[in-house]
Amino acid sequence: MPMASSLVSSLPTRALLLLLLHISFSFNKLAAKHGHFAAHNRHHELRSHSSSNQRLHQAYIAFQAWKRVIYSDPNNFTTNWVGPSVCTYKGVFCAPAPDDPKIRVVAGIDFNFADIAGFLPNEIGLLSDLALIHLNSNRFCGILPETLANLTLLYELDISNNRFVGPFPMVVLSLPTLYFLDIRYNEFEGSLPPQLFNKKLDAILVNNNRFSNTIPQNLGLSTASVVVFANNNFGGCIPTTIYKFADTLEELLLINTSLTGCLPQELGFLYKLRVLDVSFNNITGPIPYSMAGLSHLEQLNLGHNMLTGIVSDGVCILPSLTNFTFSYNYFCEETGVCQNLTSRSGFTFDDRRNCLPEKPFQRSKKECDAVLERPVDCSCCVSGGGGAAAGPAFAPARAAFAPAAVPVSSPSIAPSYS
Ligand SMILES: *[C@@H]1O[C@H](CO)[C@@H](O)[C@H](O)[C@H]1NC(C)=O
Ligand SMILES: *[C@@H]1O[C@H](CO)[C@@H](O)[C@H](O)[C@H]1NC(C)=O
Ligand SMILES: *[C@@H]1O[C@H](CO)[C@@H](O)[C@H](O)[C@H]1NC(C)=O
Ligand SMILES: *[C@@H]1O[C@H](CO)[C@@H](O)[C@H](O)[C@H]1NC(C)=O
Ligand SMILES: *[C@@H]1O[C@H](CO)[C@@H](O)[C@H](O)[C@H]1NC(C)=O
Ligand SMILES: *[C@@H]1O[C@H](CO)[C@@H](O)[C@H](O)[C@H]1NC(C)=O
């Protein structure tokens, strides 16, 4: 998924660089100050900085507890986690405490790519000064301890590419200053909690887990600029309430999330959108006319769906668009520039495997007719839980319309296309 990785790497880097610059500057000062005698006179160091030591001592207890539940450390990452000088531990960064700049505290941990296997201990709650946790690409398993709620300064939480399991870790919702949440590539399952979208997060990266039960209807209340849901099993439709997301949303990746229904006209309200990828779903119906208004859109991937109708000029002439993939659908007509996209220089497109009469690499007539003869059903087919997860507003209507044991499809939520 090259698109996702490029955008994700660009986003946190700004904030991270600032914080780490600050932290490593402090760290270097600390190292310079204590470098000479830390090794042979730890005791002296302990007493001479007694004001800071209470908090660093708590951190020491936390890291020793953590070390006890690390069962594999093939790169010897934690080998120097001995003694009370936690600021010299590999992966641990200290900085002046925001509430008391005269003392140093553990402000960040970065174990990215350490390949450590183990758990997070309850004592992680003692690291209450942490602003950054980066545990990307390890083999941590189990669940996030509830004591994480004690980390009231936490700004970035990246636990991606580990083996965490269970329902969405609700404890992250209690972190008051959390801004960047990355729980990609784990094995979380069940629903995404609606409260996730009430938090002031800039990035919500939950892709490659086992989430299911539809995308919450209040998605649009979020203030995030990047939302990546890809490779989960949500099902259901893109909520029409997504228009409320217009003021912040720039990148929305819904690849391979078992979506059905049609693309809502409301997508056209997302005027800041730069990347939209809904590929590898079962989305039906036409491209909404409103998408001609997405003037910042750079990358659009509609590939591998059941889309039909016209690929119209409105989209093909979007001023910022440089990559338009609509292969593996059932489009049967193109208008204007769409008929000859090679004429747009520096433009990448993929129109293969559609039903376009003039183009090479299209589907057979038989394959096209089978789909094009079927009426488009823009209603949303929610499997499993009877639609309860789609939000209280829709639940009663669904229950009223749907006889038991018949797939739920409420006409009241079907967008009407003329
Ligand atoms: C880690 O330490 C062990 C024991 O000292 C050593 O055998 C091994 O080669 C070290 N591994 C790495 C990657 O340095
Ligand atoms: C929370 O942090 C405080 C220090 O700020 C500490 O005294 C307390 O023990 C911590 N609580 C837990 C549950 O870790
Ligand atoms: C879609 O996601 C499922 C897991 O949810 C995975 O097994 C499958 O390989 C993915 N398909 C594509 C095309 O990425
Ligand atoms: C689309 O729906 C069909 C059956 O209706 C299913 O077999 C297929 O896996 C779905 N594809 C995706 C990408 O969700
Ligand atoms: C265009 O987008 C497709 C689908 O996301 C991607 O596979 C391809 O690499 C992109 N091409 C360029 C040149 O960005
Ligand atoms: C498409 O546009 C290119 C460049 O403008 C031109 O050379 C080519 O003849 C056009 N092809 C068709 C089929 O109109």
The radius of gyration is 25 Å
Structural class: alpha/beta
Q: Using DSSP, what is the number of strands?
A: 21
Strand percentage: 15-25%
Question: Which strands sit side by side, in order, in the main sheet?
Answer: 2-3-5-7-9-11-13-14-15-17-19-21
What is the element string, with H for helices and E for strands? HHHEEEEEEEEEEEEEEEEEEHEEEHH
Could you list the spans in which at least 5 consecutive residues all have pLDDT below 50? 1-52, 383-418
Ions and ligands: 2-acetamido-2-deoxy-beta-D-glucopyranose
CATH topology grouping: Leucine-rich repeat, LRR (right-handed beta-alpha superhelix)
Give a description of the structure.
This is Cell wall hydroxyproline-rich glycoprotein. Pfam families: LRR_8. Residues 1-26 form the signal peptide. Keywords: Cell wall, Glycoprotein, Hydroxylation, Leucine-rich repeat, Repeat, Secreted, Signal. The protein has 418 residues and is α/β, with parallel strands linked by helices. The chain has one domain: Ribonuclease Inhibitor (Leucine-rich repeat, LRR (right-handed beta-alpha superhelix)). The chain has helices spanning 2-34, 42-48, 50-68, 313-316, 365-372, 395-401; strands at 70-72, 92-97, 100-110, 117-118, 132-134, 139-142, 156-158, 163-167, 180-182, 187-190, 203-205, 210-211, 226-228, 251-253, 275-277, 284-285, 299-301, 306-311, 323-325, 330-334, 348-350. Strands 2-3-5-7-9-11-13-14-15-17-19-21 form a 12-stranded mixed sheet, with helices on both faces. Strand 2 (92-97) and strand 3 (100-110) form a beta hairpin. The model is unreliable at 1-52 and 383-418 (pLDDT under 50). It binds 2-acetamido-2-deoxy-beta-D-glucopyranose (6 copies). One 2-acetamido-2-deoxy-beta-D-glucopyranose (NAG) binds at residues 2-3, 301, 323, 325, 348.
